[in-house]
Amino acid sequence: MRKKAINSFKCIFPAKSVNESFSRYIIAAFVTQLELKVNDLADIKTAVSEAVTNVIVHGYNKPEYAKSQKLVFLSCDYYSDGKVVITVRDKGCGIENVAKAMEPLYTTAPEEERSGMGFTIMQALTDDVRVISKPGKGTTVRLIRKMII
To answer: Which domains does the chain have, with CATH numbers?
Structure first.
């Protein structure tokens, strides 16, 4: 049986670079109820920032999405055992090979100033990163962090 969240939120916003910082503020405001250590808060904000940046940069970067509504779906659930589950989702082009995309330094645009470390950073700052993606349907990134309160 799945546990019910103590508290949660859902938010939808345009996949624009200006909204990357917005996502950090939203998640920070929500998790402050947990009275986290500064380092824990910074880790969560950075992991979310990386996931949202991936949507903005990669999620809708194919020509067929040029005129579509490019959205980021951000949600967070907090459970009684201290677990925080953050979900960042898009309805974009998806990832052909998730395992390859999660390799450190992998990038689909080597000519750009991209480090290919987004998933690696997310993994370093959370307890678990789960990625579900279907080409042409979008990607869901679930960041799980057990908070010590």
So the answer is: 7-146 (3.30.565.10)
